[in-house]
Amino acid sequence: MRQTLNYRIFVIEQAGTSTFNRALLFNIGFKESLKLDSFNCFIFHDVDLLLQNDNNIYDCKNSPSHLSVAVDKFGYKYDFIFPPPQFSNLPDNTRTKIKSFVFVF
Predict the structure, then answer these.
(1) pLDDT of 13-30, one tens digit each?
(2) Where is the Galactosyltransferase N-terminal domain (predicted)?
(3) Which one, 16, 33, 53, 88, has the greatest CB density within 10 A?
(4) Count of structural domains within the chain
C-alpha cells in the first residue's frame, strides 16, 4: 500500500460444501480480528478486487461508506447493495451498533 497506513489483513475462507455465505464470513472476520487487537476501523473487501486509483483512501470516517462506486469487472456501473460486493468501511462503533451483517441477500 502506498498510503502509508498501519493495517492488518485477514483472509476469511469458507470450508465445506454449504452455500457460500459472504455476510457470515464478514461477521466471523470481524469477531475473530477483535480477539487479536482493538481495531477501530474495518474494511470489508473481496479478495478479487483491488483499488486502481490511489486517491481512493482506505479510511474510516464517522459513518459507513462504500469505497467502490465503479468496478471494472462490472463495466464501471454503479449498482449499490449493502454490503457491497466490492468493499466498504465501517468504523467499529457503527459495526457494533448494527450487531452483524445480514446473512441472507
Answers:
(1) 999 999 988 888 888 988
(2) 2-61
(3) 88
(4) 1
CA 40 from centroid of its chain's CA atoms:
14
Cell 457460500 -> residue = 20
- Cα gap 73→86, rounded to integer Å: 10
Q: Which pLDDT value is given to residue 100?
A: 55
Strand partners, 89: 43, 65
CA distances from 70 to 19, 20, 21, 84, 98 (A): 27, 24, 23, 11, 26
Range of the domain at 51: 1-104
H helix runs in the chain, sequence order:
22-34, 92-98
Rounded-to-integer distance, Cα 46 and Cα 39, Å: 19
